[in-house]
Design a protein that fits this description.
The chain is an alpha/beta fold and 358 residues long. The chain is built from 12 helices and 16 strands. The protein starts with a strand and ends with a strand. The chain binds adenosine monophosphate and magnesium ion.
Length: 358
């Protein structure tokens, strides 16, 4: 299959080129095809959420296990009422506060969304994205759009159209290239089908944000690496994910000790003939200068002060390590103020929970 790749200017969707691309993309969705499109979190791989065959195509293109449900993307609150068996006052409050935006709610399904989309569950994940291209595509197609991240299953999520192209070119009908995404981490998933709202996947909207809005919220105990015997509730959080080909370890501890440890480990690794990379913050970039002379790749992820950059760069840097055929990665810990939870959730999974104490 030839994959059409078309640029869309998210600042001005009325430009003829953008208009034409969106028109074509909407038609593909309506007729059962697949389109990758930018959202504010990561690129999604979309198909008509109510069309079983379209959902099956999504699983096939990604190589995704069929029990890992898709998120249904909507462009109005009315569409939540169309597919949920009940919309509680708490759901309404959360929707009014965070939609459109990077938050997904798990609600009980009224059966309208097929099991092929929900991975066989009687609950459904719903999100109203805020990215202009995503909103326009949902509106123009007239469909609710089922969309997981537009990567091959197991690889880091795509934050640029070129990432989607690497993974899915030839397997899907179209890629809308709307430039780099804003956030770079997948949406926060909040389970609203249980007594106490529960975060199944941390993201840009934090547990504190939800607590402030609803009064209470907890983390899914299955997310903590201390509960190795408790399975995460979101099926997708159980799989190895975000993983670069290289073995990745996170080095934790006091700043000075971390730097000394990483320098020692990376030096040893590179001298053993293994291509090595280090992920660090702006704040400690200069301390790794010595490693550059040995040929170690240093990736400055961004500053702790503007933690958004660290979030946005994470998946791109993991992909770059693959492109450079890096065999070993050592990373600082990025336990930043607001997004630390979400960033470390992805990084720990990418590392298979390999943590070295400095
Ligand atoms: P992705 O869009 O690729 O980030 O994947 C969607 C995520 O949402 C995966 O982790 C799924 O397991 C999760 N998810 C989707 N629907 C449900 C549901 N009904 N219950 C729990 N988790 C869900
Ligand atoms: Mg995904």
């Amino acid at each position: 299959m030839d994959t059409i790749i078309a640029k869309v200017n998210k600042e001005n969707l009325d430009e003829p080129e953008s208009k034409e691309a969106l028109y074509k993309a909407a038609e593909i969705i309506r007729t059962g095809g697949l389109v990758a499109f930018p959202t504010e979190t990561v690129y999604g791989l979309g198909g008509n959420a109510l069309d079983k065959e379209a959902s099956k195509k999504i699983y096939a293109a990604k190589g995704r296990p069929s029990d890992n449900p898709l998120i249904v993307h909507i462009c109005s609150l009315d569409q939540l009422y169309e597919i949920a068996s009940e919309v509680t006052p708490e759901m309404k409050t959360l929707a009014e506060k965070f939609w459109p935006g990077p938050m997904t709610m798990i609600v009980n399904s009224n059966g309208k969304v097929p099991h092929e989309t929900t991975g066989g569950l009687d609950t459904v994940a719903v999100r109203f994205p805020v990215h202009p291209v995503a909103m326009a595509l949902i509106r123009e197609s007239g469909c609710m759009i089922a969309a997981p991240s537009a990567n091959t299953s197991g690889r880091p999520s795509p934050t640029k159209a070129s990432h989607v192209e690497e993974d899915l070119s030839g397997k899907i009908d179209m890629i809308l290239d709307g430039g780099e995404v804003n956030i770079g981490l997948e949406s926060t998933i909040v389970d609203m089908t249980v007594d106490e709202p529960t975060i199944l996947r941390p993201g840009f909207i934090t547990i504190e944000d939800i607590k402030e809005t609803l009064g209470s919220c907890k983390m899914d105990p299955g997310l903590s690496s201390e509960n190795a015997n408790v399975r995460p509730k979101a099926p997708g959080m159980r799989y190895r994910h975000y993983a670069p080909k290289a073995q990745l370890s996170i080095v934790e501890g006091e700043r000075e000790k971390v730097i000394t440890k990483i320098v020692a480990l990376a030096t040893e690794s590179e001298q053993n003939g293994v291509k090595t990379a280090v992920l660090c913050s702006d704040e400690s970039r200069a301390d790794y200068k010595i490693l550059e002379y040995l040929g170690v790749q240093i990736f400055d992820m961004g500053s702790f002060e503007t933690e958004d950059d660290i979030a946005r760069n994470l998946f791109d840097v993991l992909r770059k390590c693959d492109d450079l055929q890096v065999g070993r990665i050592f990373s600082e810990s990025f336990d930043t103020k607001r997004l630390g939870n979400a960033i470390m959730n992805r990084l720990l999974k990418a590392a298979g929970h390999s943590v070295v104490e400095a």
